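Q: Could you predict the 3D structure of Amine oxidase?
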Amino acid sequence: MVIEQKQHPLDPLSVEEFHAVASIVRKARQDENTKYIFSSVVLKEPPKKQVLAYLQDINNSALDPPDREALVILIDRPSGVINEITVSLTQGSITKWEKLQGVQPTQHPEEMLEAEQIMIKDEKVIKECHELGITDMSTVYIDPWAVGYYYANPKEPKQDKRRIMQGLMYYRTSKDDNQYAHPLDFTVIFDVNAQEVIEIVRSKPHNSKYERATIPMTNHHFLPEHLDQDKLRTDIKPIEITQPEGVSFTVKNNHMLEWQKWHMHIGFNYREGVIISNVTYQDGDEKRSLFYRISLSEMVVPYANPYEPYNHKMAFDVGEYGLGNMTNSLELGCDCVGDIYYMDGVISDLKGEPSVINNAICIHEEDVGLLFKHTDYRTGKAHSVRSRRLVVSNIITAANYDYGLYYYFYQDGSFQYEIKATGELNTHVLAEDEDPTPYGSIVAPQVVGQHHQHLFMMRIDPMIDGPNNSVMQVDVVPASYPVGHADNPVGNAFMPTTQIYNTTDEAQVRSNAETSRFWQIINESKLHPYTKKPVGYKLSSLNTPPMLPKPGSIATERAQFATKTIWVTPYEDGQLYPGGFYCSQSEPRIGLPEWTEEVKNIRDTDVVIWLTFGLTHLPRVEDFPVMPVETCGFHMKPSGFFLGNPGIDIPPSKKITSKKSRTTKATNAEKEECHCA
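A: Sure. Here are the predicted structure tokens for Amine oxidase:
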């Protein structure tokens, strides 16, 4: 079966292409008796050089588009053999098929739901629940997680190669009760391919007179239908966001997005969710390239509790579950507000068929306050321009946690990425006299929120005015001259110091708040006409906590990428995931550590920047029963790239567009159409 080529080689697989891929694979296996599931189906992106050559030539049509390929991961059951298959949609056939053992792909959402239903019916699980006083198993809920590690023989610690989940246990007093208010005291270890419970791991109270914790039965609701309606706030007036003339952006060919001077391609897959590529900015008559590809490539959530079974928890939400797999269907007025354009996302089910996530991606504009302003204190004349940004976002639900993932593009050529962490704490139970310190915080009687971190890694593939870039570290330090020196007479001098990374071993660096450390992505072959220095973009983050598990720990060995704030590597096709492609139950030091074992040049060449940012979360009582949003992210700003403020050509806002003032002095302003200048 041959599918007609799409215009852009990075367009995600369509519904029709999913059907075609599944059909080709099933036909190739029709003579086998082996049972199997489709773990994932995704566009196999063409080599970067092919994509760039085709896009540069697309109007001349001298080049054929790159082959349209899909990467398919099948899991044989019960053997667990992994089939890594490349399907050419251009040729309508399989072009590569490799069988692997000892590795585990992402946990599919349907696998997790399937595992929950089997675990609930297991006799060992039922027995544990009965001992806690639970006789109705319909009140028991299990959150299936990938296992951080599992040793079949604890006396000989070696990672079990079976496909394993851990089931975190909870109770509900009603169908939509908050289960995290009622954690149970044991975890189920489950063989996914054999579909059987391997072991029950029970937690033991510490410094307690009790042998076993009882279930906390007090409800802690947050859904409005379970709250006292008389106590809901009544003094909130509506806020309306309207764009009477429509939005300022356009979407072409389903995935090409243009907004004022920004141009980009929007992609989506099961693993990274939203992917932004081919980003350019119109500077006068020149369309200047900025980035080839940006995505959230991995994350790790290490938990602090050192005791069984909680020390198995170190979630890699990108590699173990997939951001696309966990993406919500967004709703107007709830998740996005304003004049919205939605894009759907498509993933595969266990049969390889397409599963459409309606309204997976939200695109809209936001007013974000001032872009710039100045008041002449002599004349009193003021000039104000309000800032607007383009937002491309999706929201995922990873069991208890929810993450809002936001790409922001600004009118001054700046870019920002922000994560809004919310949802519910992953809780565990305490005995009545048990103290969770120092590894957790009580958020309700007998309920503890465990201390943990959220460490995210962004993969940034820059093209600052071309494919060859360098990365420069900038630290701001006091001048070395002592007070009274001719070059520092009153001691006030401070200055930036810079280092351009030459090799991969130089570019494995932690952040440094004491020196206000940031980085610049520069193009050394293009000098700014004013500064005579390379044009570039500044990269900075205020959210760069160190990874707290000790060196040599299982979490640190598996998530080496999170031990540094910055890594820089030479571009290689296929190097997308810093924790390795097969991240689930992974071996130590795969991904970035492997790619940087050999010292390689990263100066004035095609490079990839890997940035770690995140949060250290010590839960508060106020984070329960549902957590207010906490944010983290990073900024990229032009630095010696343009000839001046690129937003200076934005016309001033009209006072009339701000609706009306509630003050009595605004009467004339309401009637007159005048500018903020």
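Q: Anything worth pointing out?
A: The domain at 109-231 is CATH 3.10.450.40 (Nuclear Transport Factor 2; Chain: A,).
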